[in-house]
Amino acid sequence: MPQNEHIELHRKRHGYRLDHHEKKRKKESREAHERSHKARKLIGLKAKLYHKQRHSEKIQMKKTLKMHEQRKTKQKNDDKTPEGAVPAYLLDREGQSRAKVLSNMIKQKRKEKAGKWEVPLPKVRAQGETEVLKVIKTGKRQKKAWKRMVTKVCFVGDGFTRKPPKYERFIRPMGLRFKKAHVTHPELKATFCLPILGVKKNPSSPLYTSLGVITKGTVVEVNVSELGLVTQGGKVIWGKYAQVTNNPENDGCINAVLLV
Amino acid sequence: MALYNFKKIMVVPTAKDFIDITLSKTQRKTPTVVHKHYQIHRIRHFYMRKVKFTQQNYHDRLSQILTDFPKLDDIHPFYADLMNVLYDKDHYKLALGQINIAKNLIDNVAKDYVRLMKYGDSLYRCKQLKRAALGRMCTILKRQKSSLEYLEQVRQHLSRLPSIDPNTRTLLLCGYPNVGKSSFINKVTRADVDVQPYAFTTKSLFVGHMDYRYLRWQVVDTPGILDHPLENRNTIEMQAITALAHLRAAILYVMDVSEQCGHNLQQQLELFNSIRPLFANKPLIIVANKCDVKKITELTEENQKIFADLTAEGIPVIETSTLTEEGVMQVKTEACDRLLAHRVDNKMKGKKVHDVLNRLHLAMPAKRDEKERPPFIPEGALTRKKAMEVDAPKRKTERDLEMEMGDDYILDLQKYWDLMNEEEKSDIVPEVWEGHNIADYIDPEIMKKLELLEQEEELKEKAGEYDSDEESEDEEMQEIRVLAKQIREKKQVMVAISREKDVHGPRMPRTTTRVERAKLEKEMGSLGLDMNNKDDSHYAQNARRSRSVTKKRKREASVVPTSKTRSQSASRPPRDQSGVRDPAMAKKAKRMMKHSQKDMNRQGKKGEADRHVYDLKPKHLFSGKRTQGTNDRR
Fold this sequence. Notes:
The complex is a heterodimer of chains A (260) and B (634). Chain A has 260 residues and is of the alpha+beta class.
């Protein structure tokens, strides 16, 4: 016991007060009443925070109780059968045949041609031009309105240099240029911060694709060399597509899902 | 500056509390109302302010944590080492480093989002950006949960460390567990250290203070050390080793002669030899404790040889017993003397001492004749000095008597009187006898002394000691004094005159009474002004112009209105009847008057000219937010 611990030293030498244990017991039993009083009488923001915290506490308590209960009784385990298990009469005897592989390849090529991709967000809200581009007035009397400024997050490549300011029609402000995206692998459920290589397709308009505007649903190519993926042939994969899942201009960051 | 107290470190909140505090502070201290239709720069400013405010709060609090906690390189090496032993230097530095990183990350997040918010063109977008920014900052802090917990525990422990000053005079006790170190410190200082029969009762360093030779000394008690190599030592023993290594103190190595601690003398000697290197350059004393159980002379030959060897090396061995208190004072004085001598020696070897020495000069008076004049020290001082050193019992004080006698005690100072007849000490001294004051007759010479005093006074008065300084005044002063005297006399005369006057009723101011010209001229003349040829003066002209004789006007009968007012004298008619022909007209006039006043009365105005606008809905009662509750009724 360090030299400064007076209370503990006193307790060691002289023991507790005569009513100490009773007082402690009664105080602990009063806690339930005090908690309920608080829950009833709090108002405003404090009430919201308190109720939220209490709700999560109660959920935890219920879970624990249920867990304890489960150990006492034995239940039929419904998902004993593993995923992907197929009844005997549906089993394929030979596995995937070469013909199947070929036909899959052809189907994928056709899809690519058609421009239809299997993406996590198939439908996205189209962004109109007034939303994405803001009119900038120029000229001596501020009457000319041929310049546009991009109001959404965009990506410009490494070797990007602006056109001379007098002639550039689309202004992409530096504050809205992003180089990295937070990409989630859908199966591993892990998120990585990967550099963007380029914008592949913006679903709203090809103009946006060429400008590099990134909105929700845009397919973007990211540098996955960090993940260390390897093809069947032994080549290292260093670029993959990912689709943006949030509104980057509202959140300040680009969240995407890798397309495997 | 090194912190030897460590008590001023602010509390480190847990991650959850930290986030709650900061977010609620942001909610309270920044404006809360913003609407869609506000101008966009206003909306942006509103949300940017919240982001920056939150960032500022986090930054401030984290910086405070970083500055409060001591840097291990800045404090005294004793404390640095102690903290390393107790908290692990690496872990400590890592935790503080993580906090620093968190602080920088939060700053960067705020900077980025404020930059992004400049491009926000709608309330929704700015709001989402602010939400993202605050969320990010809070997530960064949530990750620091473990660092913050660790730092809070360190802070609590650090604030309880005993405040040991590494530079002052210190006595350090060391030895095996259970040899009697804590009992020793309890005897010598007021420190109340726990003493128990089991080993490792003392688990940390304890400090106590004592006085010797008008100086303050620290006594540091350490946990017991066992004999194994340095790498195997646990935290408790390492604290003792740290103290031994860094404090420049006199070492008191305590040994248990009776071997009651569980280790025999041979083992204790081995421990002594193994930590010998730590005793270099420090005055050392061996304390042979528990000598009430067994004295050194009662030991076996080889054990006695141990002590003999030590004494031969020059280390004093003193037998003590903390139970019977023999030898404790001897150890104390011996250790303190040695340490003082050691410190003085060191100071003399240093460079700073010459500055002081050069300024000191002992002046010896030159002998003027051959007579010997040794210093005179009264007997009492010598005996008292001896008593102080030997701790002899002092004479019985009145306080002791009071304690003994309890309720019967009476303070009787007459017993100390020096009388010729001893039995008369307790007699009551009367004050008056046969009409005479005894106090007057205490001194037989008192009348002669009084006469002498009176003669002295006469002489002084004659010599003019009590006269005021009149020659020092110049002519001007004397004139002023004469004038002042005259003014005083005149004032008194005037006061007397006014008192004699019999004044009835209210007193009119002086200006209402007419002052006659002749009287004015006579008064001014008496005061010394020249009042001849004053016919052209202002007052004389005024006197001529005023009507000294009032002519009486011939009384004419004025036209009296045939109404109630006939009975009144022919003086001016009241205003509501002047110019009114008949009762009908009078009634109409009255009606008009009342009509014009109706509006004023209804509005509660004081009169025609009352244009005061009352504030029926003061702003301070009708605006503002309530902390809890609604604004439905105020």
